Amino acid sequence: MNETILFDYWRSSASYRVRIALNMLAIPYRSVAVDLLAGQHKQPEHLARNPQGLVPALQIDGRMLTQSLAIIEYLSETRPGSDLLPSAPLERHRVRALSDAIAMDIHPVCNLGVVFHVMQQSSDPDAARSAWMRKFIGEGLEAFERMLDGPDTGTFCHGDRPTMADLCLVPQIYNARRWNVDLSACPSAATIAERCAALPAFAAAHPDQATPKQPLTR
């Protein structure tokens, strides 16, 4: 059997999502660090894995997969018993919409390349970065909070078991706290993230624990 290898960076939100998914599905893998700050993601070795020069890249089933949500959907579709995506079309749509609200709307404008560009335009780069992060993470999570306001939200973002939406929310809340975003307008999102953080699959995927690990029992 081909070894499963995750090429990731410890603070990458997208990598964090995939680490949670691998843990939840009890898929054994080896983690290989790609240091974004050192520019390793732009080196030929990594560009051969992912032409976009992004993390994560997941070597699994004899292929190299990219884009975190596409990876999570692939894992959900190919691993027996996965419930990261609901089977009912409308429920599946809601989980995808919640996931995209973070992965497609908040995350891209707060990504490393964008933020470095913002810093280069300012005479006070650190202040500019902090203000940028607080604005876009804060506004994005407030919109996400409004999306949670409905009967389909349960113990987790959708129903009473973690789905792909929770895998997106937890890394974003981590980033929000890192940048001192005011989460007072996001009580449901913050509570769900705390509930997720208590689960072994989420705890083992936390950036502080982002080292090679053994599979967890589901």
From TrEMBL:
Cellular component, GO annotation: cytoplasm
Coiled-coil parts of chain: none
UniProt keyword list: Isomerase
Gene3D superfamilies linked: 1.20.1050.10, Glutaredoxin
Superkingdom classification of source: Bacteria
Pfam family, one: GST_N
Domain GST C-terminal: 88-218
GO biological process, one term: L-phenylalanine catabolic process
Gene Ontology terms, MF aspect: glutathione transferase activity; maleylacetoacetate isomerase activity
InterPro entries named in the record: Glutathione-S-Trfase_C-like (IPR010987), Glutathione-S-Trfase_C_sf (IPR036282), Glutathione_S-Trfase (IPR040079), Glutathione_S-Trfase_N (IPR004045), GST_Zeta (IPR005955), GST_Zeta_C (IPR034330), GST_Zeta_N (IPR034333), Thioredoxin-like_sf (IPR036249)
Xref: PROSITE patterns: GST_CTER, GST_NTER
CDD domains xref list: GST_C_Zeta, GST_N_Zeta
Domain GST N-terminal, residue spans: 2-83
Family: Belongs to the GST superfamily. Zeta family.
Protein name as it appears in the record: Maleylacetoacetate isomerase
Organism whose genome encodes this protein: Pararhizobium polonicum
